[in-house]
């Protein structure tokens, strides 16, 4: 019944927030150097292959602050200095931030858009995501004679 489903939903949401019980995983922190780049690899379960994957700076209210999202293919999607590629054969997607500045430091969301896509919950399940804290350290790019380093996580 609908009432039974309403009682089940909070339990499902609680399980999604328990560490180690996630359909989506990746690093909780990444560090890059100013002027360089960094990559974040997010791993997901097979049942989410066809879903849209995204990366946004928090808060991601209704995806209004969304920076970049996949479009159902394995090709790279770019928005400014940020790109995303879904490697569905490996069940991962990779987000790359280029030409880092200190303003890029902050909290981001690595997510899968599942709203209205999950079966068994009358069409509703919040997006799957985890938070990634991005740190940007001053780097060798501050001097004219040194090239920038790139870090990949």
UniProtKB/TrEMBL annotation:
Domain of life: Eukaryota
Compartments where found: Membrane
Domain called Ig-like: residue spans: 19-110
Keyword Membrane (UniProt): yes
Gene Ontology terms describing biological process: neutrophil chemotaxis
Protein name: CD300H molecule/pseudo
Gene expressing this chain: CD300H
Signal peptide boundaries: 1-23
Keyword Membrane in record: yes
Keywords linked to the UniProt accession: Disulfide bond, Membrane, Signal, Transmembrane
InterPro entries listed in its UniProt record: CD300_family_receptors, Ig-like_dom, Ig-like_dom_sf, Ig-like_fold, Ig_sub, Ig_V-set
CDD domains from the UniProt entry: IgV_pIgR_like
Entry GO CC: plasma membrane
